[in-house]
Predict the structure of DUF538 domain-containing protein.
Amino acid sequence: MLINFGTSIALILSVFFISACGGAAAAPTAYEVLESYDFPVGILPKGVTHYDLDPSTGKFNAYLNGSCSFSLEGSYQLKYKSRISGYIYKDKLTNLSGVTVKVLFLWLNIVEVRRNGENLEFSVGIASAEFPLDNFYVSPQCGCGLNCNNLDDGPKEGNLRTNPFVSSF
């Protein structure tokens, strides 16, 4: 009887331990990682399949199924390569590669993003532009950006507001 009691206790404790631990804990999504560094999810398009992050250095890679492009309010065209990389720190993304923006007739690499209070500042190296944080609460979708339901109805509330690259370094 004592053996059955001990076996029962061991079985109950094992089930409890496995339930409490849930086996291997699910890794946070790339979007959850962004939020943990004080960034909104909308700086990445929908469709990140996986990522890797070295928390000791901040080095990261985020992967999409393929390249991704879209327009925001018709004034900015963005392209994401299938691999986006850089370094992430609280309120700062540096040494970015894999994200470009069309300014006039030129495609420029976005090399840095900084959070400055309730704004995000995007730098292409020689110039930067600042946009309200609330423009990035929703992730854009490849092909149609933030205006995927009604492509011909013009800009929708919540789209990126026009603001030219204004300050130079």
Summary: Confidence is low (pLDDT under 50) at residues 1-22, 152-169. The longest strand covers residues 76-89.
